[in-house]
Amino acid sequence: MSGGGEYSTLAAVRRAVVGCERCPRLRQHCLAVARAKKRAFRDQVYWGRPLPGFGDERARLLVVGLAPAAHGGNRTGRMFTGDASGDWLFEALHRFGFANQPHSVSRDDGLSLTDCYITAAVRCAPPDNRPSPHETETCRRFLVAELALLRRVEVVVALGRFAHDAWLAAAGLNGPWPASRRPRFAHGAETRLPDGTLLVASYHPSQRNTNTGLLTRPMVHRVFARARRALRPTGA
Length: 236
Description:
Elements: H1 10-18, H2 24-36, E1 54-55, E2 61-65, H3 73-76, H4 84-95, E3 116-120, H5 133-149, E4 155-159, H6 161-170, E5 190-192, E6 198-202, H7 207-211, H8 217-230
Helix pairs in contact: 1-5, 4-8, 5-6
């Protein structure tokens, strides 16, 4: 978990993320997308920079995704904001009391998270949604830092296998496990970790998964209903 001690606050992590230039391929891609834009967003100024995590700094629920979408977060400047996957995520978070509204379209749309923090394994939109192993490892320092500062987390929802494995690595939990206790990735799979944290796996709400029916809204709802039930009562 090296790298977490560099930052004393989540605000400092966010500033470091936004200013990061460590991965030239990712930075070039994000800037190229921001210049070219998508026809539907021609009149908008794209963010085009790495994205920090956001949400309640006292959160007990941590949601981890893969990386910003090229015309979603890379455009709006906030994780899962302005794309179809965010529509699914925020609807579920709102349904179970973690968000004040079910949709998010921009950084200033009034969205507020309660008891929930959203982050990602990689902070720049990668070409074809495929960051390289080196880029993933380089970016891990930010997730490590967030985990060190989000001291109240009880439940982690990992959206996709990539996020699942990245969170385990950042938490220092990707070492050898007994075969019977090894955290596995399958939708709805749960692992109770040595420190008591509950890791819940979910398919990512990408259009590829939702349009094909691999992931349905009831499936997403069950994941976040489980997250809500798993949280200890306030004051316990």
